[in-house]
Structures are given as C-alpha cells and as structure tokens.
Amino acid sequence: MASTALPPHLRADVQALWDYHDLHHELRPADVGIGLGSHDLGVAACTAELYHQGYFPRIVFTGANAPTTVERFPRGEAVHYREHALELGVPDGAILVEPTARNTGENITLSRKLLEAREIKSVVLISRPYQQRRAYATCKKLWPEIAVTCASQPLPLDEYILGIGDVDRVISMLVGDTQRISVYAEQGFAIPQDVPDTVERAFANLIAHGYTTRLLA
C-alpha cells in the first residue's frame, strides 16, 4: 500500500516546489474555464465549483489519456471530468469536451481550436496545483493574445498528498513538472520562467533521493 506520509527530511524541498508552482493568481471573471486533463479528479471538482461561483459561463474539459490515467479514466480524462461535473450540478449545455489532447500543449491548442467560432478573450486554466506554472507558460506561448489566470483546488500540500494517496507519486510529479519549466521553454513550447536558487536546490536534492520517474530523458 502506498504511503501518504511526507518524509520529514524532504519536507522543505517538496514544499519549495509546491509553493513555486502555485501562481496565486487572483481570479476574475472569464469567458471560459478550461479543465486540463490528468489523473486528478479534483480538477473537475474545482472547475465545477468555479462555474457555480460565476467565474465563467462555459467549460471545456480537455484530455485523452496518458499511461498514468488510462486505468483510472478508461473513457478518457475529459469524458470522466465531464461526468463528474454533471454529478456536481453543472448543466450539460455548459460543457464542451475535447477528448484527444495528449499533453498540455495540445490541451491549449485543441481547446483554442474548439472555441475558435466563439469570441473568447479570457480563460481560467484549471489544473493540478503543481501544474499551474507550466500551464500558464504554455498558454502564453501558444495562445499569447488571450488573458489567462490559473486556478487549482486550494489545498495544503499534506491534504493534497492524502487525497492522491501516494506521496512518492506526488513528489515525482512535482520534480517532473519543475524540470519541464526549463526544458519546454528551451524547446520553444512555453515562455521562460524564472527558477529561484531555492527551487533549483530542492529539485536537485529530490532527484538525488531517487524521485526521477517523471523526468524527461
């Protein structure tokens, strides 16, 4: 059974990465909320909650499957997100589904294509807490004219780990997303983001402790 206990000697490093990826955007009303597919059903719950709070009148759920989600969401991430949002009271007519995106870049470009017949000037991107920075950098590169803010379930680190049920998975995903901030900017997939020295040190230390399963080759 997977552990949910964060190792005390790694807490400061994991917290540093967790805090770095949360952009702490102040939300404002937008034309659409885009829920980015992943293994985390909390993305759909957060999107539904923001819809009910009136932040946007329409939702796009985007995502096919990754190897880490196919067992949990066999019909695809976006499809399962839609079903969960319906259970949470979002009307079916408010939801669009983009079921083919395989990565964050495709989440953005295919959602943009789905919405091209509509006059969209602003979006809220809803993601896992540690995906905010990468989602923002990707959107600013691939959809530069759109006004974008980012949101996630407002959970503290330990509560998020408990909800996912696997501390090693969360740490590995944090490490992987931190690497992608620099690598994707270098490859032209995202705008550059500053990476503070404290984050670089925490990233290196977690790699040294073996959290490498989500690293790019």
TrEMBL record:
Which part of the chain is the DUF218 domain? 45-148
Q: Which InterPro entries match?
A: Cell_Envelope_Assoc, DUF218, Rossmann-like_a/b/a_fold
This protein's source sits in the domain of life called Bacteria
Q: One Pfam family for this entry, by name?
A: DUF218
Q: What is this protein called?
A: YdcF family protein
